[in-house]
């Protein structure tokens, strides 16, 4: 069995919690954070729903990850297990490449804006020596990129 790893990142975004929440939970905001390296589709099964109205704890469909927004290379069998509207969500899913993908994002008001904290726990499907460590570095780099993009988005609006 592959090793489970956890990666945590946080950043202060120069905007209020309501604005940050609205941005981070919608497809446009998610894809803005991921670009130019990745994009993610939303499952057809949840069209028209928001994170505040999706059924919790059950599979919502496949969210495809696309390299450079074009080439599908993995999918997330999306399951949102907890939502504290405006403050926190917890996704606990599996992927083609991961037997476990758990992403918790928490927002906290701080001086100068909103602290965004991401905790990602994952377990690769393939028991390849060193793979979990390599993927931990990739996930860490990806979430640092996402945070830079989020800060830049709001900095341009202040």
Termini Cα gap: 48 Å
Mean pLDDT: 95
Question: Class by helix and strand content?
Answer: alpha+beta
Shape: globular
Give the tally of β-strands.
Answer: 8
Based on CA atoms alone, the radius of gyration comes out at 15 Å
Number of helices: 3
- Sketch the topology as an H/E string, one letter per element: EHHEEEEEEEH
Report the β-strand fraction as a percent range.
35-45%
Described by strand count, sense and barrel closure, the largest sheet is: 8 strands, antiparallel
Q: Helix share of residues?
A: 25-40%
Low-confidence stretches: none
Provide structural commentary.
Strands 1, 2, 3, 4, 5, 6, 7 and 8 form an eight-stranded antiparallel sheet that branches. By secondary structure, this protein is α+β, with helices and mostly antiparallel strands. α2 crosses α3. The protein is 26% helix and 41% strand. The protein contains three helices and eight strands. It is globular, with a radius of gyration of 15 Å.
Note the main attributes of this structure.
alpha+beta, 158 residues, single chain, globular, 3 helices
Helices and strands in order, then pairings?
Layout (H helix, E strand, L loop, with lengths): L4 E9 L3 H8 L2 H8 L3 E3 L20 E7 L3 E8 L1 E5 L3 E8 L2 E13 L2 E12 L6 H25 L3
């Amino acid at each position: 069995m592959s090793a489970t790893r956890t990666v945590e990142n946080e950043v202060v975004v120069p905007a209020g919690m309501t604005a940050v929440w609205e941005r981070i939970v919608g497809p446009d905001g998610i894809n803005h954070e991921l670009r130019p390296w990745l994009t993610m589709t939303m499952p057809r099964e949840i069209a028209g729903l928001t994170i505040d109205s999706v059924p919790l704890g059950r599979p919502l469909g496949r969210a495809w990850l696309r390299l450079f927004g074009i080439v599908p290379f993995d999918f997330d069998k999306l399951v949102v297990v907890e939502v504290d509207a405006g403050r926190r969500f917890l996704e606990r899913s599996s992927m083609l490449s991961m037997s476990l993908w758990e992403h918790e994002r928490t927002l906290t008001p701080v001086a100068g804006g909103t602290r965004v904290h991401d905790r990602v726990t994952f377990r690769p499907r393939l028991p390849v020596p060193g793979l979990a460590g390599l993927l931990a570095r990739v996930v860490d780099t990806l979430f640092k990129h996402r945070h830079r993009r989020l800060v830049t988005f709001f900095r341009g609006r202040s």
